[in-house]
Amino acid sequence: MYQKIKGTYDLLPNDTKKWQSLEKTIRSVSKIYNYEEIRTPIFENTELFHRSVGEETDIVSKETYDFIDRGKRHITLRPEGTAPVARSYIENKLYADKLPVKKLYYMGPMFRYERPQKGRYRQFAQFGAEAFGSTSPLLDAEIISYAVSVIKALKIKDVEVHVNSIGDQESKVMYKEALIAYLEKDVQTLCSDCQKRFETNPLRILDCKVDKDTELLKNAPKPLDYLNEESKTHFNKLLAYLDAMEIKYVIDRNLVRGLDYYTHTVFEVNANLETLGAQNTICGGGRYNHLVSSLGGPDIPGVGFAFGLERLMFALESVNFKGTPDYLHLYLMILGEEQKEDGIRLLNRCRIGGLFSDIDFLDKNLKAQFKLADNMNARFIAIYGANEKAKGEINVKDKDTGKEITIKSSQLYNHIITELMNPNHSCETCEEDSCDDCE
Ligand code: ATP
Ligand code: MG
Predict the structure, then answer these.
(1) What pTM, to 2 d.p., does this model score?
(2) Is the shortest distance between the CB of 63 and ligand 1 below 6 Å?
């Protein structure tokens, strides 16, 4: 028997319902903020991630799925979405678009060779957004507000927004020098990865999961203390805009985040929920003013975020999120082979008209079919047997109201539509007077 690859999972129909609801909410919030969807390939040239995410990051140095294709090209399954979106933005010259600030979002699978555990997989899904074309902290604030709105729309509570600034290139250089001077004599007390990072990319040390809580790192210099005037102004304006947007945040002086391309704002959203376990960061993001130019594009800044959708799903467990309820408008019970062709015509007409409809394919008896209709959560059950056919009629039962009537079979579709539209009917499935899914 074959089994799925370690670190992957199947989404069975009960799960996909929840995922579809999650995706629907994400899309509607994206519309509210006027972000458009972009879809890029699942694999890219390996070089793209080395140039953007950074050689020394965990993602690139340890976690990528790389292979050489039959044309001897070095290919990588995308571990994150920002670099591919930036690549596409440049390649398709989206900077020349009539909208000077291009606001994009994406959803889809990412691949990282990590140690699988709850909330950490080798194939996982992200929803992310990228906004290109402005250095204004207002765009940083909007990006954070967009992320928070998604969380609010999903009714997830107990989240904390952590923000920090690592400053522009100049501030980053000054900070780096201070950090090197501070760590120099104690490098050997750091984990082996951090000893390497000290040589290649010391900023990353603050982000280390192993050394994070040591006294050495707790007392290390912080990026906020090395911001030049411009970077300070950027950060203070961001905080003022967040206040104006009534977004609660904490300034997290240790936050640097793992990828090379960040400048100025970095942020994370943590959810303090039991259902998440140790992996409680549901969203991370920041500003990247030099990513587009470092990939060979024009000097255009950007800011973005990425959510881990599995972790959002775990967070949703705590708010008892059920997803779109399962239901049918019509279960059509065709009794007897003789009635099949006419019955199928009726079914077809209902389906053409858009009614969610189903039938039995196993010649089950009446009792078993009632059970099936129940399992399918059908609101109307229509019975079409020899008697009904002879009279040109059909028997229809409304499970919501208990009403049962016999009507002309040609009226089946109209009858159901009229009942579904009845404004006095309240939806039992979602207990609302009328709802998108049940209308
Ligand atoms: P972590 O610190 O948890 O490893 P990260 O800094 O590597 O996260 P990002 O690259 O910022 O994560 O990705 C954004 C989000 O994607 C994370 O906040 C998390 O919710 C999710 N994520 C990252 N890696 C995985 C994974 N292997 N499995 C599931 N979700 C993930
Ligand atoms: Mg990681």
Answers:
(1) 0.89
(2) no
Count the domains in the chain. Answer: 2
Task: Name the residue with the closest Cα to ligand 1, atom 19.
Answer: 308
Give the model confidence (pLDDT) of 351-394 as tens digits: 999 999 999 999 999 999 999 999 999 999 999 999 999 999 99
How far, in Å, from the CA of 77 to the mean position of ligand 2? Answer: 15
Q: What is the pLDDT of residues 117-136, one digit of tens each?
A: 999 999 999 999 999 999 99
Give me the domain span that covers residue 273: 13-168+228-319
Mind listing the pLDDT tens digit for each residue in 246-284? 999 999 998 987 677 889 999 999 998 888 888 889 999
- Ligand 1 pocket, residue 124 CB under 6 Å: yes
Whether 373 is in the pocket of ligand 1, judged by its Cβ within 6 Å, is: no
Asked if residue 364 and residue 314 are part of one domain, the reply reads no
Within a domain: residue 204?
Answer: no
3-state SS of the chain is CCCCCCCCCCCCHHHHHHHHHHHHHHHHHHHHCCCEECCCCCEEEHHHHHHHCCCCCHHHHHHCEEEECCCCCEEEECCCCHHHHHHHHHHCCHHHCCCCCEEEEEEEEEECCCCCECCECCEEEEEEEEEECCCCHHHHHHHHHHHHHHHHHCCCCCEEEEEEECCCHHHHHHHHHHHHHHHHHHHHHCCHHHHHHHHHCHHHHHHCCCCCCCHHHHCCCCHHHHCCHHHHHHHHHHHHHHHHCCCCCEECCCCCCCCCCCEEEEEEEEECCHHHCCCCEEEEEEEECCHHHHCCCCCCCEEEEEEEHHHHHHHHHCCCCCCCCCCEEEEEEECCHHHHHHHHHHHHHHHHCCCCEECCCCCCCHHHHHHHHHHCCEEEEEEECHHHHHHCEEEEEECCCCCEEEEEHHHHHHHHHHHHHCCCCCCCCCCCCCCCCCC
Residue 81 CB less than 6 A away from ligand 1: no
Chosen domain end from 270, 289, 319: 319
From 319, 352, 377, the end of a domain falls on 319
